[in-house]
Amino acid sequence: MTALEHSARAGGPVLPSGRIPFPVVDEVARHCLQEEEPETVHIEVHLPGRLDRERLRAAFTEALRRHPRILMREAPGRWYRRRYEWELTAEPDVEVVGFPAGGRDALRDARTRALTTAPPLTLSPPIRLEVVAGPGRVEGSEATDAVGAGRRPGTTTGGPPGTAHGTVLFLTINHTALDGPACLRVLATAAEIYGGKDNSPAAPPVRTPTAPQPPVETPSNWSRPARVAPGTPEPSPGNGMLVTELPLPHRPKGSPYTVNDQLMIATALTITHWNREHGAQPRPLRITMPVDDRPRDAGMPIGNGTRLVEVPFAPEELAAHGPTDMPALLHRTATRTRALKSLPRPQLGHGAALLTAPVTPVAWRAALTRGLRRAAAPWTSTTLLSNIGRIPYPLDFGEEAGRAHAVWFSAPARMPRGLTVTTASTAGRLHLALRWSRSLLGHGDGAHLRDLFEHYLHTTEVTP
C-alpha cells in the first residue's frame, strides 16, 4: 500500500498534486502557533532495561514506514494559497531518534526540551524521539518531578524499585500535525519490531450495561466559565510541568460511572478549591474532554483524530462534596459525559469547519482565526482533562529492555486555559501530568494542585 493509498484509507482527501490538505484541527492549530508556548505533546515511556541504539533506530524508522501518514511535512506555498497542505515523504528528512547525554539532570532536561522545542513542521516527520538512560527509580520514591527554571527536580521513575538501571523514551510531537494516541500507536509498532513480541492492543474493557437514565439538567454553555485563578507566575514564558504516580481510584464492581468520571470530578473539585483559596468568585466550570473513537490496531488513522466535548458543572454542584453527596455527583457526571460523547459533532464544532472553508486565501483566514480566538478567550473552557485511559499496548521491547511500567502524557497549556490535566494508567497505576502556563502558575502552585487532585480523587472512592 502506498503512502497516498494509506492516507486516503485514513480519511484524508488526496489532491491531484499528491498532497493532503490540512484538516480543520491542523489548520486552526497552524493559524495560532506561538513561539513562546510551542504546541507540543510529550509522551514518556519508562522501561526497566536498556536498548541497543542502532537496533532501536532501525525499528523506529521501519515503524514510520508502516504508518506512512506520519512521514509528512508542510508543503511550501504562496501567501494567497487557499489551504495549507501536507506533503508525504518516502523517508524521514532528519534523524528522528536521538541519544542525549545522561546524568543526574537528564530526565529534567529532556522534559524541558519537550515543552520548549517543537519539531519543525517543515521537516518530515514532525516528531522527535529521545532515549535517556535513566538513573532508575529511587526506592520508596513518589515518582514526582517538576520541570522549569528555579526548582530542582524531585525523584523520577526509571526502573523497578531498588534498581539503578532503565531507559526513558521521550516522544515530542508537534501537535499541529499529530496527537498522542496516534504516535503511541507508532511506538507500539516500533516495540513489536524491536523486541519481536506481540504488541497488539488489549481488548477494551467491557462496560456493564446500565438502564436508561432520565435526562440530567446541564448548565448552560453560554455563560462565561471560571478561569483558573493566577498563582505565582514566573518571569520566563512557556510551560511548566509536574508528573506523579498515584494509585488508581477504587470503583465498586458494576458501578455506572467510570474512572474517567472520577477524574473529571477530581479535576473540577481541585479547581474549585484552588479558586476559592485565591478569592475568585464561584462561576460555572467547563472542562474540555477529548474523545477518541479510532481503533487501536495497525490500521489506526494517524493524525489529529480526537474530537472535543465540553463538560459543564454548575457552582452549586461542586459546593457540597461530602460522602453523602458524592454518589449523586458521580451518577450525574456519568450520565452527562455519556450523553456528550454520544452526540455527533465535528472535531472542533461547526464554527471551526466554516472558518477553515478554503474560499479565501489562507493568510486572511489565519488573521481572522487569531482575532476570533482572542475575542472568544473569556468563553474558553476552564481547563482540559485528557484521560488516555489504560495504555492498550504492552510496549514490550523484549527481554533486555522489558515492558513499560509507566507512561506519561502531557497536553499543551496555553492561555487562556493555562492548565491541562493528562492521565494514563499502566500496570495498575495512574500516571498524572499537570502542565501549566508560566504566565499563570509557578512550580509551587503545581505541587499544591497535585496534592489537591490526589485528595479529591480519593474522595470519589465511595461505596454503593
What does this protein look like?
With 464 residues, the protein is α+β, with helices and mostly antiparallel strands. The chain has one domain (14-203, 215-459): Chloramphenicol Acetyltransferase, CATH 3.30.559.10. It has helices at residues 3-9, 24-31, 53-66, 106-116, 180-195, 259-277, 315-319, 326-342, 350-355, 362-375, 443-459, and strands at 20-21, 40-47, 72-74, 85-88, 97-98, 127-133, 145-147, 167-174, 239-247, 285-291, 307-313, 383-390, 406-410, 419-426, 429-437. The protein has a seven-stranded mixed β-sheet with strand order 7-9-15-14-12-10-11, with helices on both faces. A hairpin with a 2-residue loop joins strand 14 and strand 15 (429-437). Helix 6 crosses helix 8 and helix 6 (259-277) packs across helix 11. The longest helix is centred in the middle third of the chain and has 19 residues, at 259-277. It is globular. The termini are far apart. 46% of the residues are buried. Residues 1-11, 136-144 and 148-164 have low confidence and may be disordered.
Q: Looking at CATH, which topology would you report?
A: Chloramphenicol Acetyltransferase
The CATH H-level superfamily is Chloramphenicol acetyltransferase-like domain
Could you name the CATH class? Alpha Beta
What overall geometry do the principal axes of the alpha carbons give? globular
Give the amount of beta strand, in percent. 15-25%
Name the structural class.
Answer: alpha+beta
The biggest beta sheet is recorded as: 7 strands, mixed
Number of strands: 15
State the separation between the terminal residues, measured CA to CA: 52 Å
Order of helices and strands: HEHEHEEEHEEEHEHEEHHHHEEEEH
Helix percentage: 25-40%
- The count of helical stretches stands at 11
Number of domains as seen in the coordinates: 1
Shape-level CATH architecture: 2-Layer Sandwich
Strand order of the largest sheet: 7-9-15-14-12-10-11
Spans with pLDDT under 50 lasting ≥5 residues? 1-11, 136-144, 148-164
